TrEMBL record:
Organism: Botryobasidium botryosum (strain FD-172 SS1)
PANTHER family per record: ACYL-COENZYME A DIPHOSPHATASE FITM2
Regions annotated as coiled coil: none
Name of this chain's protein: Inositol phospholipid synthesis and fat-storage-inducing TM-domain-containing protein
Molecular functions (GO terms): coenzyme A diphosphatase activity
Length: 328
């Protein structure tokens, strides 16, 4: 009986240790913070009707009806940062990794960045053709559409026309020079009725996928970025802030922290704060609740996939007993 009890106790302790290794405190804090922010932002959008349905082609291209700065897609934080979020996240990672003390400059961290980058590309850009998110829009009833100026006097500001989905795979503008067959097709030319005042030879049209389930790419990318950067900050924070070192962690020798790494850590922390804030504004002003939820779930799933090859790596490492900044 006692032997069975001992085995059960040992199994319970092993399970607890495994859970802590997969979800140490910094991961739980990052995950719960993003989930809470999305919940609050989405709840606010439902109560005050502030969210724009981006899957509607007639609405998505128009300015947000809310005049708030962060409701406008042209706000500088969206155009300069969020639109290039993985680039900024990658820059922050390399700033951290390249300036890290040798003791924490693990090649596995670089491999995890490569895995996360590959997942980002698979979801958003390419998966043996269109990315997974574009495929999901198509499979859920989405269409590739273009918007043309309407006939003068028409009550509708745009003429929305469906075109073959292959044109949306271009991920850019189509013109008579790039797609002469399309612009010489009589059936397509007839659709340009409202645009006859424009020189067809100078037209630039960008096809987009609409009307299907449009997973929030911003929520996906920002969730993945926050969780990934939280992991990258975890080895460095106890070096800058000794009070954050777990009391149960084995203590190693003192490690010198260079000024460059100090700056990289603080800059990355600021970037994480910006990502969390932009997650909130996206939750308030854009997408349906389900699209935001799936964006979050895909972000978490993508992040967890980057952990699989390294799940056997112990979460707790030796930390310095007296970290100090490098003297100039």
């Amino acid at each position: 009986m006692s032997s069975t009890s001992s085995r059960s106790s040992a199994s319970s302790r092993a399970s607890s240790t495994s859970s802590r290794a997969l979800f140490p405190l910094h991961r739980l804090i990052a995950l719960s913070s993003v989930a809470f922010i999305i919940f609050v932002g989405t709840s606010y959008s439902l109560i005050h009707d502030t969210s724009l349905d981006t899957s509607d082609p007639l609405l998505a291209s128009l300015p947000h009806p809310n005049s708030a700065y962060f409701a406008q897609k042209t706000n500088v934080f969206n155009t300069l940062f969020v639109k290039k979020a993985w680039g900024w996240t990658s820059a922050a990672f390399f700033a951290l990794w390249l300036t890290s003390p040798q003791e924490i400059q693990s090649s596995k961290r670089l491999a995890r960045w490569a895995a996360a980058t590959a997942l980002w590309a698979v979801f958003t850009t390419w998966f043996f053709g269109p990315g997974l998110f574009d495929r999901l829009i198509t499979y859920s009833g989405g269409e590739c559409v273009i918007q043309l100026p309407s006939t003068p006097g028409s009550p509708n500001p745009f003429n929305v026309v469906s075109v073959p989905s292959k044109f949306c795979a271009v991920k850019g503008y189509i013109t008579p020079d790039t797609h002469p067959d399309l612009f010489s097709d009589p059936s397509f030319v007839s659709l340009l009725g409202g645009a006859q005042s424009l020189a067809v030879s100078s037209m630039r049209i960008r096809p987009r996928l609409y009307r299907g389930h449009d997973v929030s790419g911003h929520i996906f990318l920002l969730t993945l970025s926050v969780l990934f950067l939280a992991d990258q900050l975890a080895p460095s924070l106890p070096l800058l802030f000794p009070a954050l070192a777990p009391s149960s962690t084995a203590r190693g020798p003192s490690i010198r922290i260079g000024a460059a790494h100090d700056f990289a850590v603080r800059a990355t922390m600021a970037l994480v704060v910006l990502w969390v804030w932009m997650t909130f504004t996206t939750s308030v002003y854009f997408h349906t609740p389900l699209e935001k939820l799936t964006g979050f779930l895909f972000g978490v799933a993508g992040y967890l996939l980057t952990l699989i090859p390294f799940s056997s790596t112990p979460a707790a490492r030796a930390v310095p007993s007296a970290p100090r900044a490098e003297e100039k």
